[in-house]
Design goal:
heterodimer; A: 115 residues; 7-stranded mixed sheet; globular; B: 112 residues; mainly beta; 6-stranded mixed sheet; 5-stranded antiparallel sheet; 11 strands; 0% helix; 55% strand
Chain lengths: 115, 112
């Protein structure tokens, strides 16, 4: 079973709809991240969470919100989807071991299309 | 602004060649550095992580080095194979408490 899972894997929606993307992890990591990837723009950080009570905005948080329901779950919401939010969305996790930032692990991605 | 740059953006070489991918950061205070591979439309797979106290890591045909004084990391791929074709990304945080910043990637194509 995958360590980091994302649901749904693909979603087509219409402008103005509210969308939630979910991420679950079984790695026991405290840190979780949401990124979006667009052709030619690379990966951009939307939000990140260092633990359940610590949530931070990334580079492009406008139009998005997040919820860290538990250590293992981190959800991304688009309150009112717009076409330029069409992208590939990734969830990732990482941990800190003995003071060192450990590897980052990624989910398989959610392809979101907003019409 | 802290940035991570990868040059070249794309590279095509014949099978069997040894090659080097480059990653540089605007601030030499990069904390640690991770290399990833991404196949088209897929997620990122971690290849190597160079911790803050390390200078290089090796896994099979891959070797990654980190030179903090010059703000550079390289990924060396030995005896390249068509299956190595993918986009390679480097990323790192500037401290243990900061977010991870990604380069834009190098798209590698290995010709049979």
């Amino acid at each position: 079973d995958a360590d980091v899972t994302q649901t749904p894997r693909n979603r087509i929606t219409k402008t103005g709809k509210r969308i939630m993307l979910e991420c679950s992890q079984t790695k026991g990591h405290d840190r979780m991240y949401w990124y979006r990837q667009d052709p030619g723009l690379g990966l951009r950080l939307i939000y990140y969470s260092f633990d359940v009570k610590d949530i931070n905005k990334g580079e492009i948080s406008d139009g998005y919100s997040v919820s860290r329901q538990a250590q293992a779950k981190f959800s991304l919401s688009l309150e009112s989807a717009i076409p330029n939010q069409t992208a590939l969305y990734f969830c990732a996790t990482s941990d800190v071991l003995a003071g060192e930032v450990d590897e980052q692990f990624f989910g398989p991605g959610t392809r979101l299309t907003v019409l | 602004k802290q940035e991570v740059t990868q040059i070249p953006a794309a590279l095509s070489v014949p099978e069997g060649e040894n090659l080097v991918l480059n990653c540089s950061f605007t601030d030499s205070a990069i904390y640690n550095l991770q290399w990833f591979r991404q196949d088209p439309g897929k997620g990122l797979t971690s290849l190597l992580l160079i911790q803050s106290s390390q200078r290089e890591q090796t896994s099979g045909r891959l070797n990654a080095s980190l030179d903090k004084s010059s703000g550079r990391s390289t990924l060396y791929i030995a005896a390249s194979q068509p299956g190595d074709s993918a986009t390679y990304l480097c990323a790192g945080p500037y401290s243990s408490a900061s977010k991870i910043i990604f380069g834009s990637g190098t798209r590698l194509s290995i010709r049979p």
